[in-house]
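Re: that chain you flagged

S.,

Sorry for the slow reply, it's been a week of failed gels. I finally had a moment to sit down with the sequence you sent. For the record, here it is as I used it:
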Amino acid sequence: MKNTVAVLALSSFFAFTACKKNETAGTAGKTENRQSEKFVVDSVKVDDSTRITDSLKITYTSKLLVFPTLKDKTLLDSIYFQDKGIKDYSREGIQTYLENEKKSYFTSTKKDNEDWVSDITYAQNWYSSSYMKLISNTNGYMHIQYMGSAYIGGAHDEYGFSERVFDLKNNKKVELKDITSMPKSKIEAILMKNIDKINSGTSDENGEVKNSEMLLVEKIPATNNFYFDERNLYFHYSPYEIAAFAAGDITIPVSWEELKGTLNTEFKERMKIK
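Prediction finished late last night. Pasting the structure tokens below so you have them in one place:
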């Protein structure tokens, strides 16, 4: 009888232990799943061309990033703010969107220029190009740079940049007010003071040309086209926005020291600004 009780007790112990192991394994599995759901970035690119005439070729190129682990629609709408036609943010959905955009570009370019395009007698390559580039993802802040360029004849092509930072912790685009309470007028004064801190690389027969020598505006606006790192807040300006085309795009830094006393507390802590 004692042996029977001992066997039953031992069997119960092993059964209990096995259950605990299964529970532990299940918990570990859930933990692994949570850990595996890390920030993932993919991309889709469409690059194609067609001929309108013997002399004119048009090319469409676009590359969009894909974020499989981001699910918040408001955040995704903001990330793809230039591409309002996207309804499905999966890789397949974005691929379909780009293919449709390519067809639309080819069709509209042919139609809009059919009355005179046959007059082009020398080889030309018109194009539309756009790219998304992940610059950084630090402290829950994701910085994406958007670049677009095009050529439809004339002296030179046109291009421009958009910089956007997204708060992945709060699922939103970062606004200037999320960083600093300094009035824009004071920031604009700092921008004017710092205009030559990062040279655009422009030069002439006399050597380097300063950004300030090519300005087209009396006041540099504090726009939403900004990003930041551990040292500075940066404002990025496309050609013609504040200076002549020859100046190219211009980036102006504003240090955290210059914004001292106005920085948002949460932002300052997350960026570890002293």
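What I noticed first: Helices lie at 2-36, 73-79, 91-113, 184-193, 265-270.

Talk soon,
D.
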